[in-house]
Amino acid sequence: MSYNLSELQGEIDRLISLGRYGEAVQLLKKEADARYDDNGVHGAILNELGGLCRSMGLYAESESAFKKAMEVIKDDPGKDDPDYATTLNNLAGTYRLMREHALAESLFIKAADIYAKTLGKQHFLYASALNNLGLLYQDIKAFDKAENMHREALDIVRKDKENQIAYATTLNNLAGPLRETGKHEEAFKLAEEALEIYRKLLGTDNPMYAGAVNNLASVYVAKEDYKSAVPLYEQALDICRKIFGDRHPNSISAANNLIFTHKKMGEHDKAESVRKSMI
């Protein structure tokens, strides 16, 4: 069966909703091989494949798919096209998770430059590139740089009343460096606002909602209010396990956060129970 892009996306979404990630990957690989003669479609499928592999923790396969997409897109529509910038941004995201920070930074900056030149500095894709740079700077503990990136992105996305998810994501991102630099009250306010937007628009069984719950818990941890953090980390872990299973990086990260917090409270038996539940 051959799909158009809309049909393919629908089928991929269906498989993912059923937890059939492996089948989704194989379908995307098959469709990418079948559509090599149409650069736009071929590149879009490879980008989708790279994103799915990254979400599954398959970073080498993600890198390969994004690199293939770059090769497809660089000639048509070309290196000065937003689609090429998006592919750079996607590959940089994988490098960030692989802790290839210098590579990730250079690609995020290139993507931002292309977006700025082609779409302008008020476009949500430019804001997305700034957000990604901010997350990278958080990873390497350059918190002042991270805060600046996220605040610039927030100034852009708050003007777009139709894209509340992007606004919530930027609030959530900005809460990170604020938390790490002791600006706990502002961080808490932003994290709570992001969580409420996600709850209203996405529901509570959603990875983005789980990330926001985790973020709010992290603010409590920064304030050494471990008792308030525990139920939030438990909620984040439950959502991740339900969506991804126990071995997904998101689930493992959520479990580690909960284990850390129990240990901080001296609840070593509870920490060990969480650890064993993930085996």
Describe this structure in words.
The protein is mainly α and 279 residues long. It has helices at 5-17, 21-34, 39-55, 59-78, 82-97, 101-119, 124-139, 143-157, 164-180, 184-202, 207-222, 226-244, 249-264, 268-277. The longest helix is centred in the first third of the chain and has 20 residues, at 59-78. The radius of gyration is 19 Å and the shape is globular. The termini are far apart.
In short:
The chain is 81% helix and 0% strand.
Topology, element by element:
Blueprint: H1 5-17, H2 21-34, H3 39-55, H4 59-78, H5 82-97, H6 101-119, H7 124-139, H8 143-157, H9 164-180, H10 184-202, H11 207-222, H12 226-244, H13 249-264, H14 268-277
Helix pairs in contact: 1-2, 2-3, 3-4, 3-5, 4-5, 5-6, 5-7, 6-7, 7-8, 7-9, 8-9, 9-10, 9-11, 10-11, 11-12, 12-13, 13-14
Main features:
mainly alpha; 279 residues; 81% helix; globular; single chain
Distance between the termini: 39 Å
**Fraction in beta strands:** under 5%
**Overall mean pLDDT:** 94
Uncertain runs with pLDDT below 50, 5 residues or more?
A: none
| Rounded radius of gyration (Å) | 19 Å
Count of helical stretches: 14
Class derived from helix and strand content: mainly alpha
What is the β-strand count? 0
State the order of secondary-structure elements, H for helix, E for strand: HHHHHHHHHHHHHH
**Main sheet makeup:** none
Coarse shape: globular
Helical amount: over 70%
